[in-house]
Design a protein that fits this description.
The protein has about 280 residues and is mainly alpha-helical. The protein has 13 helices and no strands.
Length: about 280
Amino acid sequence: MSRPILLAAPFIFLLLWSAGFAIAKIGLQHAGPFTLLALRYSIAVLVLLPLIPVLKPQFPTGRAAWDIAVTGFLIQVAYFGLCYIAFKSGVSAGGVAIIVCLQPILVSLIAPWLVGERVGRLRWIGLALGLGGAVTVILARSGIAHEPTLGLLAAVGGLIGITAATLYEKRFGATTHPVPANLIQYAVGAVFTLPLALATEGMQADWTPALWATLAYLVIGNSLISITLLLAMIRAGEVARVSALFYLVPPLSALFAWPLLGEAMPPLAWAGMALAGIGVMLARR
């Protein structure tokens, strides 16, 4: 990936990834969590397959293909699957976000001994400020009180999934053409979610324009573009610095939820967003 794209990648990733929370909640009003994911991954595979004979990319084999599949399972099945279950079980967007935004702290604690990456004092200060800002935004909106226990456990599982995916990709990931890499990941996602959707939800969906629009965004914005950028940033930079971006996801998600879901942003939330931005800036220096 060229340097100009890598420089723009954090901004594109944050916008697309953060909007996905509110858009996924809209989609879950029309389909179950496994059905929505199965449709998302199946459509992504169908979009990518015709590109293979046109682009003729080199497919990874052996250990490289296995590593892509493992990362795909951790992100597409463990992270997204469990977060969607948390949403569907009644956990608020704030409840899921405040749990998932602990990911940079976990990555920074594990990275030194797993991938040999040192986290300096300034970066720890940035991580702490980012966490404080994210928590401020979420508490200003709703907090995590009175959330269903099963849903909270699912959100914790999602946190573990995205943390493991980030560290695994940094430790074992190799530069691969994005088309076959994405194809492997979403094929893995479809293989696991399709049977679950059929068994638990009967693949029932309310085929409204809102669902089609949701799927279009989740396939193109969240799947094909966001995941490609995330994995490229992890391979090109330090995982603690890349993970710090996730502190901006809850504030930006709250911002997108304002017009999309009608969830207002109180004044304290704006202050938390500014604090999170300062923290990420320090963590990424």
